[in-house]
Design a protein that fits this description.
The complex is a heterodimer of chains A (about 325) and B (about 110). Chain A is mainly α and about 325 residues long. Chain A has 2 domains: about 210 residues, no CATH class; about 100 residues. Chain B has a single domain, classed as Transcription Regulator spoIIAA (2-Layer Sandwich), CATH 3.30.750.24. Chain B has 4 helices and 5 strands. Classes of the chains: A mainly alpha (about 325), B alpha/beta (about 110). Chains A and B meet through α7 and α9 of A and α2 and α3 of B.
Chain lengths: ~325, ~110
């Protein structure tokens, strides 16, 4: 019974979140990696916490309230950093699920350790509190870190500090939980009732945003690409803007910019098509020349240079989400 | 948008006129699902009057395609205007759906 309560609730909640991902943004392989990362963090955290505690000889309750949350949340957050740096997370939904999986992996190992230790004062209620409260808290903290981090980098260009609000909130929430401000049973109940509700709310908002993004961008991109292919691009606002750049750039660069816009739009439309196919559980289409086109886009981007890219920003902005979108084609 | 449903031989022909976008894609989905619920598993979507389709419309097509595939049915699109056909070609959806020149070709195809 103890085993069931120690890790089944958190895995059930992770499955529930996974099922909420209607666009199938989450890759199972990455999800499993997240779980293993959580397990690795718990192992690392255990030894790190022990070493620091021995080194500075702090009172256990002080340490668990103020030091352990910082170390554990930082460790768990690193994999989210990695996934974001590799453009593997596109929206709040997949970020939240990956984050929760890391926390779930962490709590599973932590609870297995306590199961083997099996302190005499631990009864079934303790296991329920550990399995439902502590485990879900671990998942929730990393998940909300990922939500805030992805939200911040999608909005701003400043990626260096974008992680800070999320990390601070995760540490504060974790530390607050370890203070046990309420009766542990009540605290567990609150987590169990509020967290899934918060996830459903965040996911439905993010889903609506994703659909809007898909709708607006897809239509305008198809329209512009259609004009380019028909040779009518020059008469559009975007075409006129590109023409206006002639004075600042060489004709070769302008030509590269034209090719860059054409290729970017084509690849962007295909990335969105694949997203729509995934949403409806169709196999995604990988064209034979896709890799060549992606390489060509990278090459064109280099040839245009940073200044050229800045000049093209009103037409195409290589922000985080656009890079993620193209990465999905790989 | 205007949707008309008729039955011809084994097929249910759904004619869609006008624009299919975010505002009315759900209406088209509802009409198509009603056809499927009514037992129509071989559907031809006559797009001769369709002059605009957004990604919401394409997603409705995917939903119907998926439903009919599960029911071992058929979903065929015909008489696409050049502009709409271009969207299918550019996005690569041409390889997902069965496209035909007209209703007759769709029935015989």
């Amino acid at each position: 019974m103890n085993i069931i309560f120690s890790f089944v609730p958190v895995i059930l909640l992770l499955t529930f979140l996974f099922l909420l991902d209607s666009f199938n943004l989450v890759r199972v392989k990455t999800l499993v990696l997240c779980l293993f990362w959580g397990v690795a963090c718990a192992t690392c955290g255990f030894f790190l916490n022990k070493s620091i505690q021995n080194l500075i000889e702090l009172d256990f309750s002080f340490y668990s309230r103020y030091m352990a949350p910082v170390i554990e949340e930082c460790l768990k957050a690193t994999f989210i950093f990695y996934l974001i740096s590799k453009k593997k997370i596109g929206f709040i939904i997949d970020g939240a699920i990956y984050g929760f999986a890391i926390g779930a992996g962490f709590s599973v190992l932590e609870n297995i350790y306590y199961l083997f230790q099996s302190p005499p004062e631990y009864n079934l209620l303790t296991w329920i509190i550990r399995g439902v409260g502590t485990a879900v808290m671990h998942g929730g903290c990393t998940s909300f870190f990922a939500i805030l981090f992805v939200g911040a980098i999608s909005r701003s260009e400043n990626r260096i500090l974008a992680f800070l609000p999320g990390l601070l909130l995760a540490i504060l929430f974790h530390s607050g939980f370890n203070h046990f401000p309420f009766n542990p049973v009540l605290q567990t109940l609150l987590i169990l009732l509020l967290l899934p509700f918060a996830f459903v709310l965040v996911f439905s908002l993010s889903n609506a945003k994703l659909q809007k993004w898909l709708e607006i961008e897809f239509n305008s991109e198809v329209e512009i690409l259609n004009m380019i292919r028909k040779g009518d691009f020059g008469s559009t606002k975007a075409g006129k803007y590109l023409k206006s750049l002639k004075e600042q750039f060489t004709s070769e660069t302008i030509f590269d910019m034209y090719c860059y816009i054409d290729l970017y739009l084509e690849l962007s439309i295909k990335a969105k098509r694949n997203l729509m196919l995934k949403e409806n559980e169709f196999p995604i289409i990988v064209e034979d020349d896709l890799q060549l086109k992606l390489t060509e886009l990278t090459q064109l981007r280099k040839q245009i240079g940073k200044i050229g890219e800045l000049a093209l920003a009103p037409l195409i902005r290589m922000n985080y989400r656009n890079l993620w979108k193209l990465n999905q084609l790989n | 948008m205007n949707v008309q449903v008729s039955t011809s031989a084994d097929y249910t022909v759904v004619c869609v006129d006008g624009r299919v976008d975010t505002t009315n894609a759900s209406e088209l989905e509802k009409s198509m699902l009603e056809v499927i619920e009514g037992g129509g598993t071989k559907i031809i979507l006559d797009c001769s009057g369709l002059n605009y389709i957004s990604s919401s419309g394409l997603r409705v097509f995917l939903v119907i395609q998926k439903k009919l595939m599960l029911l071992k049915g058929q979903f065929r699109l015909c008489s696409l205007q050049p502009g709409i056909k271009e969207i299918f070609d550019i996005s690569g959806f041409s390889s997902i759906f069965s496209l035909f020149a007209d209703t007759e070709a769709a029935m015989n195809g």
